Amino acid sequence: MTASGFSAVLLAMALYGVLHSVLASHTVKRLLAHRLGEAWVQRYYRLLFSLLGGLTLLPVLGLMVLLPDSILYRLNWPWLGLSLAAQGLGVWIVWRGLRATGAMAFLGLPQALGQMPALPSRLVTEDVYALMRHPLYTGSLLALWFMPLMTWNLLAFNLAATAYFIIGARLEEAKLRAEFGTAYVDYARRTPMFIPRPGALVRALCRCSGWRWLS
User: Which PANTHER family does this one have (predicted)?
Assistant: First the structure.
């Protein structure tokens, strides 16, 4: 390995993952509810979590750019076209996942602005969530690992991000099982975590003939 910031980026992203997981925990939410009140948590927690997640990721991205780096590979045609297609699929999966759950609500904006009252959580099992339990992670991994240009620093980021997604998915599912009980257990039994079953994917494409999923 030539001079690069591989170790520093790997460590920084690992620390980001730990921080992000702690902020997402029920323990932190209960602490904030005790200090600031349940109504405050219901209204502002999601937005605060999103802002802190974005702001604390900036130093990691800065390290990737500023630290020494070197190229591992650069794809040319036709592999370049295939990688861009895979990344496009990843972006589409993320978009569909956010669309199914509500992108603005995912960020916490309507709640903070008082445009969305606190409602009981709903288990989303339709759209891409009928094919995989964590489409946001699946789409993000496609976008990350099919980069047409790979460097040591980007590889470190991708490895740490992949570990974070896997661990984060496990922690998230523990919370979902506690919240939804047997409904989530049944959903998890019939729906893969990250990679859709080929048969389910074919059936979904047949049901969505006419490009209705693009609407």
Answer: NURIM
